[in-house]
Amino acid sequence: GELASRLKVNVAQVIKKLMGLGIMAAISEVVDFDTASLVAEELGAKVEHEVHVTIEERLFEVDEDKDEDLEERPPVVVVMGHVDHGKTSILDAIRKTRVTAGEAGGITQHIGAYQVTMNGKPITFLDTPGHEAFTSMRARGANLTDIAVLVVAADDGIMPQTVESINHAKAANTTIIVAINKMDKPTANPNHVMEQLTQYELVPEEWGGDTICVPVSALTGQGIEDLLESINLVAEVKELKANPHRRAKGAVIEARLDKGQGPVATILVQKGTLHQGDVVIAGTSVGRVRVMRDDQGAILKEAGPSMPVEITGLTEVPAAGDLFDAVEDEKLARELADRRAAEQKEQQFSAYKKVTLDNLFSQIAEGERKELAIIVKADVQGSAEAVKQSLEKISNDEVRVRVIHAGVGAINKSDVMLANAGNAIIIGFNVRPDPVAKEEAAQAEVELRMYRVIYDAINDVTDAMKGMLAPKF
Ligand code: GDP
């Protein structure tokens, strides 16, 4: 029927053509695209498959670069390790090598990342010690770093955060270079550190493994140049490349609101080249790059792969770890940013509003909840009904307890969907959730509570309404 009306022909004609194809169709029959296009073509229409194009597809360049467009890029390095083992001191010592090398600078400003040059090759350091930044960025899908310098104090050895750092670096597929720090101390014992490293599958090169260990002292500067040379060596082996001939793409390292300049963000360009005046979208923030500076405050007109720059011109402060894209269409970018903002708000809203027995009382107290919706599942119909009636009797002046569904059998996906839509909790009696329901509930943050005794359930709900539910551990 619909096909006929779109073709502006009689339904009978379409049905006849379908019969010709061996399909006995009724007027409300659903046919697939191939069949419909055969019929349409036979009736003299031109057929095109309607493709739904998303904003992202219209806005972003295809994320595939041809081999011949790829060019060498500097490595991006993060410094990790246990607290007090010298991460900050090493980052400072490295920064100083630039000054002693007679390069311009001296007035380094902290923008969250910087570049130094070793033997003519630039190296980018993320100047955010601690791996929190690193992991939060990875959680957002921005795998920024190529190499992790693992700082281990020679007088202290491997400590809990050292192990954490190793695990994070490994999970991110980052090559680890070990800087054995504080070598100036008389109690330094680099051999002990190397021995410990082998327990974490980091076998030093000296011992036939492939982990580079560099003894350094952030205090005296000993070994810092060796460390930089090792980084260059690893970078060379990794053959790090990116296409500079495309619109820029990367991630936000840090961002703040400046009284005079408005939102200021340090971003790392991962591919492409960012130009002054480019329109960028970072998370929910859109704007034109007004001023772009490097870590020494010098104004830049453009920035290529692995280059950290500070930019102004965004409309709002993006979050560290947000991905950014330079785009052509500012209007479309704003549309996408608005949509992202709306999605974020909705997520926060729904997460906040999801009711559980634990947050029930605070929601009641804040006047946000006048009703507690419950789904009851039990092993037999008799108990389902009994529970339903007992629960509904708990209603008081402030809150009405309403059982929106009472049924028999395991808690299934449709129970969870119902609970999710109706913001209900699910109570089970001598039944369990099936695996799908369990997963769906976790994802939708729907509370599932299992009981064997009706009395216990009534008690818990009563207590929760008074804010007296004992916390579960
Ligand atoms: P972080 O917590 O890993 O960033 O460690 P810091 O860089 O703040 O250093 C912790 C302490 O160790 C500070 O008191 C530093 O002065 C000291 N320190 C760092 N590197 C060295 C070093 O190479 N030799 C000595 N003797 N002390 C160091």
Characterization of the model:
The chain is of the alpha/beta class and 473 residues long. Helices cover 35% and strands 23% of the residues. The chain is built from 15 helices and 21 strands. The strands form 5 sheets. A 7-stranded antiparallel sheet has the order 13-12-17-9-10-16-14, with helices on one face. It has a 6-stranded mixed sheet with strand order 3-4-2-5-6-7, sandwiched between helices. A 4-stranded parallel sheet has the order 19-18-20-21, sandwiched between helices. α7 (160-171) links the parallel β5 (147-153) and β6. α12 (381-393) runs parallel beside α15 (454-466) and α13 runs parallel beside α14 (435-444). The longest helix has 24 residues, at 330-353. It binds guanosine-5'-diphosphate. Guanosine-5'-diphosphate binds next to α5.
Number of helices: 15
| % residues in beta strands | 15-25%
- Alpha-carbon distance between the two ends: 60 Å
Number of strands: 21
Summarize the structure.
The chain is of the alpha/beta class.
